[in-house]
Specification:
There is one protein chain. The chain is an all-alpha fold. It has one domain: Cytochrome c-like domain (Cytochrome Bc1 Complex, Chain D, domain 2), CATH 1.10.760. Helices cover about 55% and strands about 0% of the residues. The protein contains five helices and no strands. Helix 2 crosses helix 5. The chain is globular. It starts with a helix and ends in a 5-residue tail after the last helix. The structure holds heme C (HEC). Heme C binds next to helix 2, helix 3 and helix 4.
Length: about 110
């Protein structure tokens, strides 16, 4: 957990001083991600348990953000997730990515 916060701290500083990079995690805000996650955990287990719907806790934040962007632009094809992702902007996806990456996986 401490490693995560250290990373988050430097990532925040780095991102604010290099506002326009191609970083998928630009603008990420853990608290905002937690707030937005309420919608996701109606389907995805909050405890990271896979019950037919894949668990998304503990995924690498960049991988998570890439997946969400893939759903958003239709590179990954799943009707529900395409609809969910289409309503999220870059900052929301980044925030969800850092939040779920910090959540414990069931395994
Ligand atoms: C109505 C149910 C539902 C909701 C709400 C939902 N998802 Fe999903 N999600 C799914 C299903 C079902 C899949 C599996 C899709 C597939 O098999 O291709 C999935 C897949 C994913 C994946 C890919 C996981 C993997 O390992 O491939 C991610 C990441 C994800 N969802 C994130 C989210 C986020 C973030 C939210 C909230 C903003 C969200 N989902 C809301 C049902 C949902």
């Amino acid at each position: 957990m401490r490693t995560f916060w250290t990373f988050f701290f430097f990532a925040t500083i780095f991102c604010s001083s290099h506002a326009k990079t191609d970083n998928l995690l630009d603008g990420a805000d853990l608290g905002y991600g937690e707030y937005l996650s309420g919608e996701c955990v109606t389907c995805h287990s909050k405890d990271g348990v896979d019950k037919g719907i894949p668990a998304i806790n503990g995924l690498d934040a960049e991988v998570f953000a890439s997946i969400m962007h893939a759903y958003k632009i239709g590179d990954m094809d799943h009707p529900v997730m395409m609809m969910v992702a289409s309503r999220l902007d870059e900052e929301q996806i980044a925030s969800l990515a850092v939040y779920f990456a910090a959540m414990p996986d069931a395994n």
